[in-house]
Specification:
Number of domains: 3
Number of helices: 24
Strand order of the largest sheet: 8-7-6-9-11-10
Helix content: 40-55%
Largest sheet: 6 strands, mixed
Distance between the termini: 62 Å
Strand content: 15-25%
CATH topology of the largest domain: Hypothetical protein af1432
Structural class: alpha/beta
């Protein structure tokens, strides 16, 4: 039985942590050790947007210790991820290079949506409890040092996920001077976050019945709820009682009572207030705190991708549903999107040997189709540019910033003139490989969209056949397709240019 030893590292806002896991197809993944160091990278990152040399030295020392632990456990692979503190830096590339030169460890800066998607996977790892809970209206709260992610589920479906910049460390740093002037610090925090909560409630909680709240991370289970919880569940009355017995205490008293560092204890009240405020607006009956963290999600993702485990939950569908809800928010035509998706996927699947793209790229194509018309909500005259801006400014759970850029670019060039490499390099961070991917997705999207130019879904079915570098699309339609076929010429030219094959359309039926 093949067994791998894998290390997950989280360079967080107030803690650097690592878990080592043993993975095999028989046991899935099992935690071997958990190592943590307190280091408040976010204190400077959220204020001056830099990490000083002394802090970098501490970080490198910690990571060097991690390397020694990894060697002791015979770790064969690792993934080291940095989160919001690094996203806020003005010079993340410089710091990451220093870390690599001094420790040999490569640090990956997760986008906000990637971070919380992995966190979400850590909860899904506890499949029985997670699957059962999300059948009812459920919210996942991921309270980090720099931000808060709220994800809403209804009947096993992800409804929406939103990020708010009201993390516990950020709140503490913003209010630390004012805290000295009040005896009601909890009320001060409530006032500070009230506008964000009210806005979230107005936009996303209409007619939503949220019964359960899942608390991501292990902060509260390591501080306030150190004792064993029955099924990791906290009732609302139990939470309120603990809340009143906690938030009014000075940091030093909390530190001594809980046996934790004062700096760590200073994050307890902001975290408790955030949880209480959301429990209030949800009217939730209970809080589930499974005590899992980003590290568990990183390991789960690795195990899933390397086929040590098979998830019962369809995470790819969550990404598609998130995009579908964005398209709905901007009043995109549902029937047009479905018709265009069918055509785009038929082309993609039939030309795999030509384009060399895989499962992930197929998902990006579907997302591009879902979102290609959202810009019409803002401007009918600048659809491509507005769609591009909407996608770039909207977080889509599970996607990196780079992947969002790829989708946005394909959508932009669906109607706008494609920018060739000499022009492209001047205004994009995408490398050559990603530039070619944009070209391929654009070429397919243009054909698929043009074939439903009238938005009447005239194509009833489509079959694609690739032979001798010629792609033939057999179209079944009883309606007149003069408009679609007539406007397809320039789209065909670009498609043939990108893939180096001929494209021919044949109709099965005619009027």
């Amino acid at each position: 039985m093949a067994v791998n030893t894998f290390a997950a590292i989280d360079v967080g806002s107030y803690e650097i942590s690592m878990k080592v896991f043993e993975l095999s197809k028989k046991i899935g993944f099992r935690e071997l050790t958990d190592v943590r160091y307190r280091l408040e990278l976010g204190e400077d990152a959220y204020t001056i947007r830099k990490i000083g040399p002394e802090m970098v030295n501490y970080l490198c020392e910690i990571l060097s210790d991690f390397k020694r632990v990894m060697a002791e456990f015979g770790v064969t692979e690792y993934r080291a991820c940095a989160t919001s503190a690094f996203r806020e830096l003005l010079n993340p590339v410089i710091v990451i290079e220093q870390i690599y030169q001094r420790t040999g460890l490569r640090i990956e800066v997760l986008s906000n949506s990637e971070q919380h998607f992995l966190g979400y996977k850590s909860i899904a790892a506890i499949e029985a409890g997670f699957k059962k809970m999300i059948q009812k209206g459920t919210a996942i709260l991921d309270v980090g040092g720099g931000s808060l992610q709220v994800s809403l589920f209804d009947r096993d479906t992800l409804v929406t996920t939103q990020s708010l910049k009201i993390g516990s460390l950020r709140i503490r740093e913003r209010l630390k001077d004012l805290e000295k002037s009040t005896i009601h610090y909890d009320q001060l925090i409530e006032e500070f976050i009230r506008n964000d909560l009210t806005c979230f409630q107005r936009l996303y909680l209409k007619d939503r019945d949220i019964r359960n709240v899942i608390l991501m991370g292990d902060f509260l289970t390591d501080t306030i709820y150190q004792e064993d919880l029955q099924d990791n569940t906290i009732t609302r009355s139990e939470f309120d009682k603990r809340y009143e017995n906690t938030v009014h205490k000075p940091v030093q008293e909390l530190s001594e009572e809980l046996g934790i560092d004062p700096e760590y204890a200073s994050l307890v009240t902001p975290t408790m207030v955030i949880c209480k405020c959301f429990l209030d607006i949800f009217g939730a009956e209970q809080l589930w705190a499974p005590g899992v963290s980003l590290l568990d999600g990183i390991a789960y993702d690795y195990a899933e991708r390397n086929k040590f485990i098979k998830s019962a939950h369809n995470f790819e569908n969550d990404i598609l549903v998130a995009a579908r809800n964005i398209a709905k928010r901007y009043s995109s035509g549902k029937a047009h999107i479905q018709g265009t998706t069918d055509i785009a996927l038929a082309i993609f699947d039939s030309t795999r040997k030509i384009h060399g793209m895989g499962k992930r790229e197929r998902l990006l194509l579907q997302l591009a189709v879902q979102l290609h018309d959202c810009g019409k909500y803002i401007s009918m005259g600048a659809v491509s540019e507005c769609s591009y801006r909407i996608i770039m400014e909207t977080e889509i759970i599970g996607l990196s910033t780079e992947e969002r850029h790829i989708i946005a670019s394909a959508v932009r060039y669906n109607n706008a003139d494609f920018r060739y490499s000499s022009q492209y390099e001047q205004d994009t961070v995408l490398d050559r490989e990603k530039y070619l991917l944009v070209a391929k997705l654009t070429a397919i999207l243009r054909i698929a969209n043009a074939m439903d130019r009238s938005h009447y879904q005239k194509v009833e079915s489509i079959r694609a056949m690739l032979k001798d570098r010629k792609l033939t699309l057999f179209i079944d339609s009883k309606r007149d397709m003069l408009l679609e076929i007539g406007l397809l010429k320039d789209k065909v030219e670009f498609f043939e240019e990108v893939f180096g094959i001929k494209l021919e359309l044949r109709r099965k039926k005619k009027v």
